[in-house]
Structures are given as structure tokens and as C-alpha cells.
Amino acid sequence: xxxxxxxxxxxAGALLTGAAHAGNVTVGVEAAGVQTTQKALKGKQVxxxxxxxxWVGSGNIFTGGAVSGTITNGGFxxxxxxxxxxxxxxxxxxxVYNTTTIQLSSAVDYAGLWASAIDGDFNTSAGNTVALYNxxxxxxxxxxxxxxxxxxxxxxxxxxxxxxxxxxxxPFAFFNFTSSTAFDRIDLIQNGGGGFELDNVTIGNxxxxxxxxxxxxxxxxxSWAMMLAGFGMLGGTLRARRRAIRFA
Length: 248
Fold this sequence. Notes:
With 248 residues, this protein is mainly β. The protein folds into 2 domains: 21-213, Jelly Rolls (Sandwich), CATH 2.60.120; 221-248. Helices cover 11% and strands 38% of the residues. It contains 1 helix and 13 strands. It has one helix at 221-247; strands spanning 21-22, 25-29, 41-47, 54-56, 59-60, 69-71, 76-80, 92-96, 99-116, 127-134, 137-143, 173-191, 196-206. Strands 1, 2, 3, 4, 5, 6, 7, 8, 9, 10, 11, 12 and 13 form a 13-stranded antiparallel sheet that branches.
């Protein structure tokens, strides 16, 4: 998995080629050609748009899961896979032409998506942008193309047959957004001309202690106190037994 340079710069990792942190959010980019998240998630749900068609102004894009994601803005067009979009080169994908909001029924700490034919440039916030909100509070906003500023050339061009290598002046990549602040709203924004093509929109909660999100389990203060008290009692008992044997 490749994690692009952003704000704090490029950092090495065991399973990752870099790490990027912006405020409360860690932004990651999967290896070139990977079109689904490789992160371990709890309650993972994926929207593929394969059951939709045409202009979508409202409705739940996730089915069969605990969290619903309702589209509340128009400007979202679903069409068949082509040179500009569609994970795996099959099925359907969505295109945002202005701003599409996905309102979640419950807060999560992870969102990801396969973005294709990415618009914008490497130095501004123009082009395809993802913004995460907790209520009306912005958690983080990310123009996608600058996140690939240090990426290898393998991200450029459609990786899927029958369009392999075509549209090679635009990048295609899967982005991971993991936040220490839970969010319940995702804004998909197209700044400027063109469209924001996307597929495999994914939500869930990151499993701590696995992959690039490892933190480990830390006992609560009360648990520490009980553990220390237990060790103290055990040590006192062993010392008393040794004294008793010595006196005997």
C-alpha cells in the first residue's frame, strides 16, 4: 500500500511505502492497480452502483449493512464501465459533476473509494475532492491529485481491460481515509470542469492493532492499578514463604 506525501511528508512503514497525516485523518493510497481497500475493517460496506442507473438524486447506496448512506444532493450519474471509470472494467460507476453528499446513519472512522480519471493538478485544491464531516464540523478535506505527487507512473492510465493504458494522462487510484474523529457525512466534490468518477465507495471502522492502523491495546488506569496490586500481593506471598522455609 502506498501512502502519499501530504502535509507532514513521506514516512516509511513496514507494510506501507509511506505515511501521511493531516489533522485527525490518515490518508492512504493503495498500490497501483488495486481497486479495493486492503485495510482490516469492522462493519465493512461497499457501494458498487451496479444496481443503479442514470441520474441519482437520493437513496441509500449501501444495502444489507448496519449503516445506511443516503445521497442527499443531485448531480450524481451512474453509467456502465468505460475508459474513464468502473472498478475491474465491469459493472457501473458513478460520476459527480458538482457536489454529492452521502449522509451516514451512524458515524464511522473509515471511508475509501476508487477514483478514476482524476482531475486537478498537484499544487491546488481544484479537481476531485473528498471532505469528511462530523455533523456540520469539517474533519478533513482532501484534493486527490496532490496526494499522488510522489506516486510512481503506474497510477497513470486505466488499469482495466479493454482500456488498459488508455487515458494515460490521468491517474487512477484507491484512497483510504482513516480518522481519529468519527464522521457521519462524506462530500464528494468536483471543483472545475470534467467529472469526479468513482466506484467501490467503502465505509467501516478500522480494526486497531492490524495493518497500518496498529495502536495495540492499552489497559485502563483502574486495570493497571489492579494488576500492580496483584503483582505486589504475589511478591509478598513468595517472600513470606521463603522466610518461613529459612526459619524452619
